């Protein structure tokens, strides 16, 4: 793999603030920092929209549990798109995945896809809570339902965040047809490089500046 410099890695980053206690001032600071660092996008909670920024704006949907009804997720995604979100990161019903009900997983994703047809749709499968077989099946369901990306984690699940193993398995499953976003617990440049090497085409980072500092100019 070609060695990436700091600016190239920054262009893979969704600069993220999803803490429930985040204020409007915190989000404005996130946007300013993201613009300064040259990230690809900022990722926030939907209640923080609309944002004033030249960067693409991503929002989460059904976050962090995924246990919202499909109708609620669809309405949330549609409202976010109306308020300027270019990307939506939705959480699947993880219990449905663990039970092997992949038709329900796909239907949930399809409802959001239909409600927000113009956004880039990333599907959070919470890979640390799934077996390898379940990860593969969720990626296949995501592709069937019209997703653009599959994403490892919310960063809020006790099972953990991204792993290079999960990213590699997700990339092998979706090939070059979908993007793969690694997020959750990526706090060092070494971890970020490992995720990129495993096949991640986007990184969800909250400590972006310190991660980028480990890459050469």
From TrEMBL:
Q: Which residues form the active site?
A: 89, 151, 181
Q: Which SUPFAM superfamilies match?
A: Aldolase
Q: In which pathway does it act?
A: Carbohydrate degradation; 2-deoxy-D-ribose 1-phosphate degradation; D-glyceraldehyde 3-phosphate and acetaldehyde from 2-deoxy-alpha-D-ribose 1-phosphate: step 2/2
Question: Which top EC class is given?
Answer: lyase
This one is known as Deoxyribose-phosphate aldolase
Gene that produces this protein: deoC
Q: Which HAMAP family match?
A: DeoC_type1
> Biological process GO annotation list?
2-deoxyribose 1-phosphate catabolic process; carbohydrate catabolic process; deoxyribonucleotide catabolic process
Protein family: Belongs to the DeoC/FbaB aldolase family. DeoC type 1 subfamily.
What is the stated purpose of this protein?
Catalyzes a reversible aldol reaction between acetaldehyde and D-glyceraldehyde 3-phosphate to generate 2-deoxy-D-ribose 5-phosphate.
PANTHER family this protein is in? DEOXYRIBOSE-PHOSPHATE ALDOLASE
């Amino acid at each position: 793999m070609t060695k990436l410099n700091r600016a190239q890695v920054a262009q893979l980053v969704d600069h993220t603030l999803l803490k429930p206690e985040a204020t409007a001032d915190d989000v404005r600071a996130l946007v300013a920092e993201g613009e300064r660092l040259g990230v690809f996008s900022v990722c926030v909670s939907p209640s923080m929209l609309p944002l004033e920024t030249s960067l693409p704006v991503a929002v989460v949907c059904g976050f962090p549990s995924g246990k919202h009804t499909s109708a609620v997720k669809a309405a949330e995604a549609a409202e976010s798109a109306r308020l300027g979100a270019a990307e939506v990161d939705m959480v699947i019903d993880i219990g449905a995945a663990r039970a092997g009900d992949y038709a329900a997983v796909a239907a949930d994703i399809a409802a959001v896809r239909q409600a927000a047809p113009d956004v880039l749709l990333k599907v959070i499968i919470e890979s640390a809570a799934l077996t390898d077989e379940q990860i593969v099946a969720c990626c296949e369901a995501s592709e069937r339902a019209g997703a653009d990306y599959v994403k490892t984690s919310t960063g809020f699940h006790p099972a953990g965040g991204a792993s290079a193993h999960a990213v590699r398995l997700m990339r092998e499953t979706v090939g070059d047809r979908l993007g793969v976003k690694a997020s959750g617990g990526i706090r060092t440049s070494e971890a970020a490089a490992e995720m990129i090497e495993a096949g991640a085409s986007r990184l969800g980072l909250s400590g972006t500046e310190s991660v980028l500092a480990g890459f050469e100019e």
